[in-house]
């Protein structure tokens, strides 16, 4: 694209913002619009508006893709309107929405796919509505119990025997509303640290994949464990039951400050086992968990041990040992990767340093060549890189072209003296939302040996 074309688009966008007329009954600033008493949703607003509030109006329904022309919204407030229902895909086209307030309306039911596509949602307020706690809303009861978003108390307005009870506290009888009952299957391959969790959908009559984002196996004494973290449905530990010859749920992981898990890393320090759940939301905290085994006190499992930095959108974690010390590296979409050092006095991680000149990192993988430690970094924007540990810091060895490719996964494999670094990517041209299996895939292999530099 020539400089002239770029300047043209910038001028067109600037002109459109100058021509924007704040809707009647609204007040508008650079990135915020507040409307009071509105009868409809504004249709023409700047695409970079990140906050829209429509309060004390007469809007009665949210239909499919009603806010699709507002892709930058991070906050949407619809309090005090006359909403009675929210339709499927009502918020599609809002991938960055974090805060959703629908308080003080007349909502009795919400269709089961209403919140589909809200990947970054961290706060939801549904107070002051007229929810009917029946089979039609059972999916919502399940969703409230499993979501990682912070949700206000939702009270039942009916039927009579349910009135004034909390929707998310209601018992779910096994034989009730069978159309949305759950049946889970777990597949696991011990050599690849991967697993698949499937859920039976009684409406579509087929298994569907659950939202697993991280899965690790670990053998601790006589415990064979699989640790699973997922976007929806909470995070859990499964243990192999020799008598039943299958994995069964062993523990539900505490997620006090986990809003949007993105990865999991298991490691051992001084014979003690730990794992970290990486949180990719600014509202959450990447959290370290420690194994505790006290069967006499019925206290066996992993429990919260340490919260790491705030306001980072962490994407990946890698644990390394070098020069007799233990380090935990956290990649981030919003900051440079951070290196934590294990403090042997406090038995906690402390900030050691940052990795400069690495932006928007989505995956990291450490590997060794003879006595040297390297770190492969995949970036969402710009080229990927290989870094080398020198003088207690990582410094760049070589950039690896990966522009215009969207990250999928990163792995490394050593064959004799040769390392293979595989980055599975997808072309943006074929991006199709959550239907990732339909997207075009390509495989880029990077190799190195103790004699040759990295080459593609």
UniProtKB/TrEMBL annotation:
Record has Ribosomal protein as a keyword: no
Cell location: Secreted
Example of a GO cellular component annotation carried by this entry: extracellular space
InterPro entries: Cys-rich_flank_reg_C, EAR, EPTP, Gal_Oxase/kelch_b-propeller, Leu-rich_rpt, Leu-rich_rpt_typical-subtyp, LGI_related, LRR_dom_sf
GO biological process: inhibitory synapse assembly
Protein keywords: Glycoprotein, Leucine-rich repeat, Repeat, Secreted, Signal
Domain LRRCT: 129-178
Segment forming the signal sequence: 1-16
Pfam family membership, one: EPTP
Entry protein name: LRRCT domain-containing protein
The organism of origin for this protein: Mugilogobius chulae (yellowstripe goby)
């Amino acid at each position: 694209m020539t400089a002239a074309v770029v300047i043209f688009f910038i001028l067109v966008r600037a002109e459109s913002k100058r021509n924007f007329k704040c809707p009647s009954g609204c007040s508008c600033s650079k990135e915020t619009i507040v409307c009071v008493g509105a009868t409809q949703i504004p249709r023409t607003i700047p695409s970079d508006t990140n906050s829209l509030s429509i309060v004390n109006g007469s809007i009665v329904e949210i239909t499919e893709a009603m806010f699709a022309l507002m892709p930058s919204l991070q906050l949407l407030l619809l309090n005090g309107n006359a909403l009675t229902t929210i339709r499927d895909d009502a918020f599609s086209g809002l991938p960055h929405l974090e805060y959703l307030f629908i308080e003080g309306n007349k909502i009795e039911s919400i269709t089961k796919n209403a919140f589909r596509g809200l990947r970054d949602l961290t706060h939801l307020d549904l107070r002051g509505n007229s929810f009917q706690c029946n089979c039609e809303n059972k999916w919502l009861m399940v969703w409230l119990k499993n979501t990682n978003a912070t949700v206000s108390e939702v009270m039942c307005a009916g039927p009579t025997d349910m009135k004034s009870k909390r929707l998310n506290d209601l018992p779910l009888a096994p034989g009730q509303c069978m159309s949305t009952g759950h049946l889970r299957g777990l597949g696991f391959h011990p050599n690849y640290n991967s697993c698949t969790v499937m859920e039976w959908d009684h409406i579509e009559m087929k298994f569907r994949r659950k939202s697993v984002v991280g899965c690790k196996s670990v053998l601790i004494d006589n415990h064979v464990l699989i640790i699973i973290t997922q976007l929806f449905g909470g995070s859990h530990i499964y243990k192999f039951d020799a008598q039943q010859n299958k994995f069964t749920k062993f523990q539900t992981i505490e997620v006090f400050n986990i809003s949007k898990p993105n990865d999991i890393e298991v490691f051992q320090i001084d014979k003690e086992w730990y794992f970290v759940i990486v949180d990719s939301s600014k509202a959450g905290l990447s959290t370290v968990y420690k194994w505790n085994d006290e069967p006499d006190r019925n206290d066996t499992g992993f429990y919260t041990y340490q919260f790491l930095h705030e306001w980072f959108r962490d994407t990946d974690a890698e644990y390394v040992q070098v020069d007799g010390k233990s380090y935990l590296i956290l990649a981030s979409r919003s900051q440079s990767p951070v290196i934590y050092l294990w403090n042997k006095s406090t038995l906690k991680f402390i900030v050691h340093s940052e990795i400069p000149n690495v932006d928007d990192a989505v995956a990291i993988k450490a590997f060794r060549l003879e006595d040297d430690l390297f770190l492969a970094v995949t970036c969402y924007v710009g080229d990927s890189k290989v870094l080398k540990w020198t003088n207690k810091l990582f410094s760049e060895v070589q950039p690896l072209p990966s522009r215009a490719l969207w990250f999928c996964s990163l792995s490394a494999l050593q064959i004799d003296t040769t390392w293979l670094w595989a980055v599975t990517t997808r072309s943006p041209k074929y991006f199709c939302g959550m239907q990732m299996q339909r997207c075009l895939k390509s495989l880029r292999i990077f190799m190195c040996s103790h004699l040759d530099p990295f080459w593609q």
